[in-house]
């Protein structure tokens, strides 16, 4: 099998080889993107693989974000509506006894701003990261409950939610159903 050579005038005499049977047009080929780095004075170019995002991924990430938001919303409302209950939780799990109602109102208000930015999908690195850290601390603070699993089954629900928070943080650039002004990656 032989290759046909086609010239692309837009690329100043560059040629591209095609297999027989390929459809060849007179237009220039798409520019290949490279990741460049210098090693000992030599420029090394590695082609960047174009990855296509599945069409369902933004919807799946939105659903994860809404699910995490609902849980955080009720934890936030607990601080604002029942600060005495929040005080017991902070004392039992975080060792922070003696915080007054005002502290919980302030924590609740700040957390409300955070979760509203999170659910809107803005400042993703900061909001998704903060949600991941807060839930990670919350999950690990209940470590003693995991040592008696059959007496504390409900605490194990924190682990899949922690995984969802981590997935949202890691895939934040693909979470495009947001109020963010970031451009969306290519879709398949």
List the helices and strands and how they pair.
Blueprint lengths: L3 E5 L5 E5 L15 E6 L2 E6 L9 H25 L1 H12 L6 H20 L3 H18 L1 H4 L11 H13 L18
Antiparallel strand pairs: 1-2, 3-4
Helix pairs in contact: 1-2, 1-3, 1-6, 3-4, 4-6
Walkthrough of the structure:
With 188 residues, the protein is mainly α. The protein has a domain at 57-174. The chain has 6 helices and 4 strands. The chain has helices at 57-81, 83-94, 101-120, 124-141, 143-146, 158-170, and strands at 4-8, 14-18, 34-39, 42-47. A hairpin with a 5-residue loop joins strand 1 and strand 2 (14-18). The two termini are 32 Å apart.
Unreliable residue runs: 1-16
Helix count equals: 6
Question: Which of globular, elongated, flat, extended, rod-shaped describes the shape?
Answer: elongated
Radius of gyration: 26 Å
Structural class: mainly alpha
Biggest β-sheet: strands ordered side by side in the sheet: 1-2
Helix and strand run: EEEEHHHHHH
Keywords:
disordered N terminus; two-stranded antiparallel sheet; mainly alpha; 188 residues; two-stranded antiparallel ribbon; single chain
